[in-house]
Amino acid sequence: MTATETTPAHLTSAEPFVPIQTRSERPTSFDPAEFGTPTGREVNWRLSDIKRLAPLFVDEETETGDDIGIDYQLGELESRGLLVESTGHDTAPRGEIFRPEDVVSAIAWKRCANALHIRLPEGQVQEEPVIARLIGKGADRHSNAHIVIEAMPGSVGTIVLHHSGSALYAQNLEIIVREGARLTLISVQDWEDDTVHASSHQAVVGEGAYLKHMVVSFGGGVARVNPSMRLAGLHAEGDMYGLSFADSGQHIESQVFMFHEGVSTRGNVLYKGALQGTGARSVWIGDVLIGNGATDTDSYEKNQNLVLTDGARADSIPNLEIQTGDIAGAGHASATGRFDDEQLFYLESRGIEEEEARRLVVIGFLMEIVQKIGVPEIEQRLAEAIEEELRRGAGLAPATKAGA
């Protein structure tokens, strides 16, 4: 849907409010004014931290040149020839598949004059992962970005976007995986606690191509990373993984969308999160759409959350929309609860102290995602981060009956 075809997502008080019923109906526009200012009533904002995200709703000129609020350390990309000259609003491939779905992404599109363009050359295999480090210079500096990641036909590689420091940061990520390419994209949110980060990831996967998309969020006051993946080509495949650990006062959110459009596509979504401390909050909304032409689809999505202390809250909402009956399989699941009493009893019965038993349960729960990364350096770093989070939350609440 183009900007001219879009109807406003935000209605005035004089108009009847009709909520969007399915993820596929969400309007798009390149004009921030089409969306209005979110109130929290909108389907895509109703579980978000509107108050802290509010500075990102302001359509204003942000820093440019040396004053930009994010330090982009791209030495690895440059040395390996993976960085393409910046692309303006009307320069392909920017905008080939990306369509802003909310006011933040529309502002980021408008205010980012030149996109950062990363390209894996056709037919080349990148043996080692490449890491781009994005370091915030201060939470009082509003920055907007549009990043294009393009895996050319037959290319293979892993790209890591590592976010740290303090920032007020709106980010669009446009991911294009062309025919026969295999891309792993890992976005790590390792921000300081005063950061507010909202990011929209939109990906398309072509014929015979594969995308592993991972969102890892440990830091930030608010980290709202919403990824969508369109399996467009014949035999296109995609895995969407997520890992989060929310501490006191943190809000970590992902609204995930997987769209099976092509024939014989395979998709899997698995997000896991742990929460500890008063006011710790996680939000996961997972939508899977199997289109009317997506025959022989195989799809599954699951979200699991482990609540470690009182005062933490996890919202988990899976949705599955099927428009054809000719599929190989489809399903979804969601679970939120405390420690598994049987697991703790098993470990304690073998002489393991309760505190250590709890630590082992949490690590075992989250490491399923960590081990899917496939990059030993990052896996080790995340394992250490999990240990550090657990040390911060020493004195975990006793195991109780599971509850959402």
Automatic annotation (TrEMBL):
<protein>
    <submittedName>
        <fullName>Iron-regulated ABC transporter permease protein SufD</fullName>
    </submittedName>
</protein>
<dbReference type="GO" id="GO:0016226">
    <property type="term" value="P:iron-sulfur cluster assembly"/>
</dbReference>
<dbReference type="Pfam" id="PF01458">
    <property type="entry name" value="SUFBD_core"/>
</dbReference>
<feature type="region of interest" description="Disordered">
    <location>
        <begin position="1"/>
        <end position="37"/>
    </location>
</feature>
<dbReference type="InterPro" id="IPR000825">
    <property type="entry name" value="SUF_FeS_clus_asmbl_SufBD_core"/>
</dbReference>
<feature type="domain" description="SUF system FeS cluster assembly SufBD core">
    <location>
        <begin position="138"/>
        <end position="365"/>
    </location>
</feature>
<dbReference type="InterPro" id="IPR037284">
    <property type="entry name" value="SUF_FeS_clus_asmbl_SufBD_sf"/>
</dbReference>
<comment type="similarity">
    <text>Belongs to the iron-sulfur cluster assembly SufBD family.</text>
</comment>
<dbReference type="InterPro" id="IPR055346">
    <property type="entry name" value="Fe-S_cluster_assembly_SufBD"/>
</dbReference>
<feature type="compositionally biased region" description="Polar residues">
    <location>
        <begin position="1"/>
        <end position="10"/>
    </location>
</feature>
<dbReference type="InterPro" id="IPR011542">
    <property type="entry name" value="SUF_FeS_clus_asmbl_SufD"/>
</dbReference>
